[in-house]
């Protein structure tokens, strides 16, 4: 029997290391070519590595939770006839809808070895006999752990729509966390972002140290570099967004948008695109080259949306968002959100962003001074939209009010450009009819 050694491959992200999250096999298991053998986490994504060999698993050379350098051996597989290894530099791509994650180009999409950990699609849900819903909607409900029988249908024939399922999942998430917890007995603790080491002694139980790696390490490095290399300037303005809320309501009732999630973030995204066209320097970036510093202006918009996910902060972006109509942009935002929530955001989806929106309003926050994403010149934040007293034609009336705030690289954009951009975004939120231009 020939023993083959599988080394950690370069998954095409330009990274040098990855964390072993979970082994899908154990010594003695039989695997075939393309069977998933391990799940790893890089600084950008979770990746399932398929086996390039068939045979019997020998030894696991890296433990779960350990960080391994690219090129280091991670597993041995015994085989009578060794299969040729896969290409040296594969890249990650999403699997089809029914697949469980990402695979490496060159390895194929063969069947996976049974996992010891449940995937989102395997979460138990109650039976939904008698509920009218199309197969894709039923799959979405399974993925989000939603009981279709508990969802109020809004379809014209009494069927459950995609928007019904997503709305139910979001409401369930909010109400699961609405109860105020009691104070714990320990004065301080650090929230784990990875499996912590066991305390060395009873005396150490009051504190613990968590290794910084994966997404948290990448985020910390990027934000520190941005904060201390780009001179940030922040501005904000309060906005009467009542007409935006009216437009959102009309779009939700429109048959053309029946299968798409509509929210104020969609109007915000359209407003940002309109404003970027009027002040293109906001869509630029400061670039240091061997010949000196340059300002690179992009005549396209890869619109980043900051997303809080179970793995940490990710900023996937919508490629060429400037070329999309309202429906296309709404669909792209919905797909981006669902993909991030399921932990399937690929490295390609996070690369090449030109400008970022962070929707802090979903957390009930009014405004902030966000840090610019590296490689960009600005980031804008949409605050919570609340009914507040507002002066209209000399009278105080209840209006839907929000705060738009943003941070910008003062090396790239001067104060007048920054102010004009924020004012333009505010103008569209106050009067969305400007988008008809």
Keywords:
2 domains; 24% helix; Dihydrolipoamide acetyltransferase component of pyruvate dehydrogenase complex; 8 helices; Single_hybrid_motif; OB fold (Dihydrolipoamide Acetyltransferase, E2P); acyltransferase; single chain; alpha+beta; seven-stranded mixed sheet; four-stranded antiparallel sheet; Chloramphenicol Acetyltransferase; 21 strands; 437 residues; globular
Can you describe what's shown?
- This protein has 437 residues and is of the alpha+beta class.
- It has two domains: 2-104, RNA polymerase II/Efflux pump adaptor protein, barrel-sandwich hybrid domain (OB fold (Dihydrolipoamide Acetyltransferase, E2P)); 216-436, 2-Layer Sandwich (Chloramphenicol Acetyltransferase), CATH 3.30.559.10.
- It is built from eight helices and 21 strands.
- The chain has helices spanning 135-144, 162-176, 214-229, 242-253, 264-278, 326-341, 347-350, 415-430, and strands at 2-7, 17-23, 30-31, 36-41, 46-50, 55-60, 67-69, 73-79, 92-94, 102-104, 232-240, 284-289, 292-297, 303-305, 307-309, 312-314, 317-318, 355-358, 378-382, 386-392, 395-409.
- The strands form six sheets. Strands 11, 14, 17, 18, 19, 20 and 21 form a seven-stranded mixed β-sheet that branches. A four-stranded antiparallel β-sheet has the order 1-8-6-3, with no helix packed on it. The protein has a four-stranded antiparallel β-sheet with strand order 5-4-2-7, with no helix packed on it.
- Helix 1 packs parallel to helix 2.
- The protein is globular, with a radius of gyration of 24 Å.
- The N and C termini lie far apart (71 Å).
- The relative contact order is 0.11.
- Mean pLDDT is 79; it is low at 85-126 and 174-180.
- Its cofactor is (R)-lipoate.
- Its EC number is 2.3.1.-.
- Keywords: Acyltransferase, Lipoyl, Transferase.
- Belongs to the 2-oxoacid dehydrogenase family.
- GO terms for molecular function: acetyltransferase activity; lipoic acid binding.
């Amino acid at each position: 029997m020939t023993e083959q050694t599988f080394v950690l491959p370069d998954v095409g992200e330009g990274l040098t290391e990855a964390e072993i999250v979970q082994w899908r096999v154990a010594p003695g298991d039989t695997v075939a070519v393309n069977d998933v053998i391990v799940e790893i986490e890089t600084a950008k994504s979770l990746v399932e590595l398929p086996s390039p060999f068939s045979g019997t698993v020998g030894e696991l050379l890296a433990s779960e939770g350990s960080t391994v350098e690219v090129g280091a051996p991670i597993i041995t597989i015994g085989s009578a006839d060794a299969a040729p290894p896969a290409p040296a530099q594969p890249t990650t791509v999403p699997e089809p809808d029914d697949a469980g994650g990402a695979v490496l180009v060159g390895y194929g999409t063969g069947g996976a070895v049974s996992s010891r950990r449940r995937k989102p699609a395997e979460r138990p849900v109650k039976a939904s006999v008698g509920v009218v819903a199309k197969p894709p909607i039923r799959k979405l409900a399974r993925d989000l752990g939603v009981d279709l029988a508990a969802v109020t249908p809004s379809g014209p024939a009494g069927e459950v729509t995609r928007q019904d399922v997503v709305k139910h999942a979001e409401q369930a998430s909010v109400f699961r966390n609405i109860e105020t917890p009691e104070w714990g007995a320990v004065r301080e603790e650090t929230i784990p972002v990875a499996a912590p080491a066991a305390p060395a002694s009873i005396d150490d139980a009051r504190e613990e140290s968590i290794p910084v790696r994966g997404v948290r390490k990448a985020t910390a490095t990027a934000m520190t570099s941005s904060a201390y290399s780009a001179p940030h300037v922040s501005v904000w303005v309060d906005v009467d967004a009542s007409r935006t809320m009216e437009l959102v309501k009309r779009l939700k009732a429109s048959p053309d948008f029946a299968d798409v999630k509509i929210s104020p973030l969609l109007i915000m995204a359209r407003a940002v695109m309109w404003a970027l066209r009027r002040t293109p320097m906001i869509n630029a970036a400061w670039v240091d080259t061997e010949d000196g510093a340059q300002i690179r202006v992009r005549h396209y918009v890869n619109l980043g949306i900051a997303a809080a996910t179970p793995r940490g902060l990710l900023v996937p972006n919508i490629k060429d968002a400037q070329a999309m109509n309202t429906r296309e942009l709404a669909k792209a935002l919905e797909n981006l959100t669902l993909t991030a929530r399921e932990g399937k955001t690929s490295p390609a989806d996070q690369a090449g962003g030109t400008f970022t929106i962070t929707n802090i309003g979903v957390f009930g926050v009014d405004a902030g001074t966000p840090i610019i994403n590296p490689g960009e010149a600005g980031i804008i934040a949409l605050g919570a939209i609340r009914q507040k007293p507002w002066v209209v034609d000399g009278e105080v009336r209840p209006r839907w009010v929000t705060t738009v705030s943003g941070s910008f690289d003062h090396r790239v954009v001067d104060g007048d450009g920054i102010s004009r951009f924020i004012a333009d975004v505010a103008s569209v939120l106050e009067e969305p009819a400007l988008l008809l231009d």
